[in-house]
## 1
Amino acid sequence: MTKTKKLINNPDSIIFEMVEGFLGAHPHLVTRHGQTGRALVAVDGPREGKVGIVIGGGSGHEPAFLGYVGRGLADAVAVGNVFASPSPEPILEATRAADGGAGVLYLYGNYSGDVMNFDMAAEEAAAEGIAVRTVVVTDDVASAPTERAHERRGIAGDFFVFKIAGAAADRMASLEEVVAVAEKANRSTFTMGVALGSCSLPQTLKPNFSIGEDEMEIGMGIHGEPGIGREPLESADSVTDKLLDRIFAELTLSPGDEVAVLVNGLGSTSLMELYLLHRRTKQRLDEKKVQIYHSFVGEYVTSLEMAGASITLLKLDEELKTLLDHPCHTAALQVGSVTSGQRVSRSSGPEHRASSTHPGRRSESAGEGAAQGERPGGEVTPQIFRAMFRNVAAAILARKDWLSELDGVIGDGDHGVTMALGWAAVDRALDEVTAEEDIEAVCKRMAKAFLDAVGASSGPLYATAFLRAGASASGRIGLDAAALVAFLEAAAAGIRERGKAEPGDKTMVDAWVPAAEAASRALREGGSALACLKAAARGAEEGMNATAKIAARKGRSSKLGERSLGHIDPGAASTFVMLSAMAEALEQELSSSSGAASGE
Ligand code: ADP
Ligand code: MG
């Protein structure tokens, strides 16, 4: 397959370099905050007594999201990797930067990865005494039927919801009021998109999906998630009609109503074409005697270089009109003229943070006085434990392309890239482990490293798995068979708790649950740690294969429903890779350390 062409230096530093470029271009608007380099704050946005607005999401949607930071709009943004949610740490940094003592509102598009990462950040912010509320944007009509409108994805409509809420906060409305008006804006915003051509991640340079020369896909998501149907490409007017008909089916408009219109290009569609779409949109609204109060035509929420466009209508009332007109000054949107505000004066920064448990610090439950020798161990010694996870890192790297390809079919194509990043970070974190650290401390290190490196859905899911698994072995220095099984069960339970997916929803839970069950069965039959781990790997493999037979109900691919049939779930696949690599390493270490039979 031919590679796509991009102007990049190194795909691994693309986010850092983009942020640096952005800050260099707009130093009067935005500055960095905190240690991650991924939290940006408006220079005169946050101020005492004002509700802080924090937005964020994956990169690749520029000018969203960082382009909407500035006076009168968002106060701070957390920047994720390409098409992957930012992790909790930058979100927390953005939260601290935006906090003016009146609470903080999180606004972002409704994707399970973003929801889990923002929720984890909100939990930590609450622990620091910052009141956080969340409104997720759900404007994509194509992504779920009316009765499940709350499950819809957030796409170009982010723009309107951010603008309205940012204005309300700038006018010093209370947190409750800003939440209420953001919810109203979200309820009144409807988007339909069409894709004509694919986009490619900088890391893969391969089209994220394929689409025929004469085809279009109605309702495709802004990460290339499949829409509601492939059709032969039609004229600008009839495509506009198709998009608007779906919107009009949801949004009742009567003569005299007023709307704001956003015709948004996805990345490589000319402005000329966007104006054709607007032309037809106006004709249709004129027919209905609906007034266009204000129009926005251009690139507002893109999808890398995807070809295509979306149309968004926001139904207005007096309050929404006032807020739409409220001045703002950001890189991507300027309305009226703003008077410069005062930066929040209180000290803010990492030192402000209530200290959380250091991942390298030995857990309390290990007992401060306990000498290493008194702590329970097992066949899985500390060295073997580390070797197992190093082998996972190697195996994930080796299967990276496969995992991304699986995710390209039913998700957004980043799973291999995301997992490889996370496991490379885990590998580095394992270098820092000291001899006296127990399993729980090592797991905390792995969780933090993984989460800080990736975000996405897999970040919070695997990080929670590490944390829960580590806690199950609290005080232990190694694992025997029973402790290993408890470790796997706790990992599975952590993933279910964080993602709220059930077996049968077609997620990694469908590999973790049979893996943990198989391990526990092996234990009951008197199996060794190795026998239990091998059983877990086989259970994960069976679970992974079975995901091909079910339609997705959770995560990004749930929007596909039946169309996900026949494809295995990428998260279930990475679970299988992970457990088999653990088993493989354990077997190797046991045979090389003792030279004796493996005990199976
Ligand atoms: P993203 O979906 O944010 O792009 P990844 O591609 O890294 O994240 O991971 C996708 C995988 O995450 C899916 O294949 C699925 O197994 C898993 N997943 C998504 N949502 C959930 C959830 N709520 N619970 C459990 N697993 C989930
Ligand atoms: Mg993905």
Note: The chain has a mean pLDDT of 91.
## 2
Amino acid sequence: MTRKFSGEKLVLASHNKGKLAEFSGLLAPLGITVVSAAELNLPEPEETGDTFEANSTLKALAAAKVSDLPALADDSGLAVSALNGDPGIFSARWAGPEKDFAMAMRKVEDGLQAAGNDDRSAAFICVLTLAWPDEHMEVTRGECKGKLIWPPRGDGGFGYDPMFMPVGRTQTFAEIAADEKKAISHRALAVEAMLAKCF
Ligand code: IMP
């Protein structure tokens, strides 16, 4: 049975300040305080899963157990059809320790050229998990479909945004206004689904 969140406080299983601001803003109107894994000095578990679901649930579960509070975690990335879903869960890792996304995007484009067909479809995926200390979990998924363009365009956003054009648009995620991206992104859809399911 689906479990509803009934407390006043939850942990965000992420050390990323941007994510903390985003999730705090979404949950504040519901009277929920979000504390970050960094504030509680929680360790960052290794992402050993081989799916977005596996990594999202392992992060949420680890934070819930250590903090003894419900915990929210997300795992996201870009899945490219012609590359059999790569970079997928390896999206951050393709950019290397320097977080060089110009290089990561070039790697995607090289892969598309090598694939030798004209399928440039891709999707950004976000899997969100809300876990409780007793190991109960609720999971939602958001997907934003689009196509990849080359060369990359736009200065906004982050990661693979400059080469991703969502369906029905003529601008990349890096050209679209931040507020607009927030409304249609994979993360927004996963959060919306979680709010409807558990809050
Ligand atoms: P994580 O969920 O914080 O581990 O992020 C995974 C990686 O996926 C990021 O480092 C980005 O490379 C990529 N990614 C996730 N969401 C987006 C997005 O909205 N735009 C561009 N890249 C993204």
Note: The helical segments are 17-27, 52-67, 101-115, 178-184, 186-198.
## 3
Amino acid sequence: MCGIIGYSGNRQARDVVLSGLKRLEYRGYDSAGIVVGNGSIQLVKDKGGMANLESILPEMKGQYGIGHTRWATHGPPLKNNSHPHLDCNEELALVHNGIIENNMALREELIERGHTFKSETDSEVIVHILEELYDGNLEDAMLKTVAKLEGSFALAAIHAKENGKIVGVRNISPLVVGVGKKENFLASDVPAILEYTDRMIYLLDGEIVTLTRDEVKIMNFEGKPVARNWQKVEMNLEGAEKSGYEHFMLKEIFEQPDVIMDTFIGANLNAENGYSINLRPDTIKIIACGTSYHAGYVGKYMFEEFAHVPTTVDIASEYRFSSATNSNPLIIGISQSGETSDTLAALRTAQKRGFNTLGIVNIVGSTLTREADNIFYTRAGLEVGVAATKTYITQLIALLTLAIKVGVAKKTLGIDEARHLSNQLRKLPKHVRTVLDNSEQIIEISRGISDSKSMFFLGRNMNFPVALEGALKMKEISYIHAEGYPGGELKHGPLALVTEDTPVIAIAVKDQTYEKMLGNIGEVSARGATVIGIGTEGDTELPKYADHVIFIPKVPPLFTPVLVSVVMQLLAYHVANVRGCEIDKPRNLAKSVTVE
Ligand code: M6R
């Protein structure tokens, strides 16, 4: 996830691009850069965030330019890997947000044809292709260039000799055009340009825009002109970084359909990048903390089901006190930040024991990425809310993808079965959207339980850790005491705490645990508890048992944790919101826990 911006008009482009980049910094702050055109092009870029860029930025004369703020995916956050990237003649400049999946093949071809690469990024191939295809008209070159690219990309490019012209492209990664008076803008997100104009054109996938000071022209990837009117955006700048959402947490919950896809696509890239993950371990041990631990716990069921590999899950701070596991284990450390001290310490212990380690990590360049033997990146983008949401969902996607790969490698999963699962996985973003569209019902239920002092979350099998995560989310941001339990365990003690004042959230989806969960719902109902059931759409039985039922779309059983988790995130968020809690920065917590 990166931020891009472009400007053409009568102002100094440097100032407009700089102010826009500051508003896009939430999209990444590994490095940043600006190019301004004025007969030639002047480039300034460096590693680090906007404060650093601003401190080194000289006066730059020119009325068109582009800028970028980076969240590193290919290549560490170094100056060379910063955008904008230039062609060999230093006449063309380009910024990119997204992932070019076929970059390795393209890069090799370009090097063979004599191009010199200055970065390790996937993005730089684009500017060299543009260079080859450029024949005096940037949009023509861009049209031919996009035909060669696979993956997700939002682009903005300028040429030194085409004064005032910016060409932008949208394909999966977002890009919006801001229409001004004698000036026009491009940006990854509305807030970047809202201080200059509220007239926006949201580009669609497969569109190329050419903008100058006086004109905005859009065409599709076939080169056919597209007519589009601007829309007036009702958004105030105060909440702009949250793109109109009240809290970052809610924004991040709603980003989940996109980041699921990014992580799924990225899974193939992880393999392409030459990582040699041990796909045939005899056992797996997963080590993590907090929400990442819960994701790992769900992963245990995935590895056991798809690959028949016995899998154990340890809380990282406990691992060092355990005895060594069997021979040929794969140790998987999961961490959003890649900086959690407990997880790092546990991984180091595993390495001292001679075990092969794999990190599932979100932040590129973090300590875990440098220390683990292999890395699998989740591609959730920057998560600002302290409560993990989209990073957890992408951990589930990473684990699903890995479990399928291990299953295929160990031949416990046939190729056709694996393909079928991958196809189902591709549909998950759509199903998540369906859950998000049901927010009104969840808000209504949240109002009814927001005064509670205590809650229980029940689930069985792979949905037991989902219940743990639901309870963690609830306590973390609403400060209501909440416990996650396996449905069958309640009667062995905790049932003593269940009264009419204790709402119970019960996961009763249609899988092999369904009948038993109905029994558990009966047990708590008999004690007067209000039951909120989470069930599979089309189920007519569950509403007879539960006071409220929130339905999720029907998906393969091991995919249900993703959809149920989204319901639980929304429930926690809205309960906390009704209670007026400090949602994005809950008391006593930090995003990255760097003490043991
Ligand atoms: O960065 P990590 O994934 O290693 O962080 C682990 C936990 O600190 C983290 O998941 C924490 O539990 C979150 N605040 C939960 O929302």
Note: Residues 427-596 form a domain with the Rossmann fold fold (CATH 3.40.50.10490).
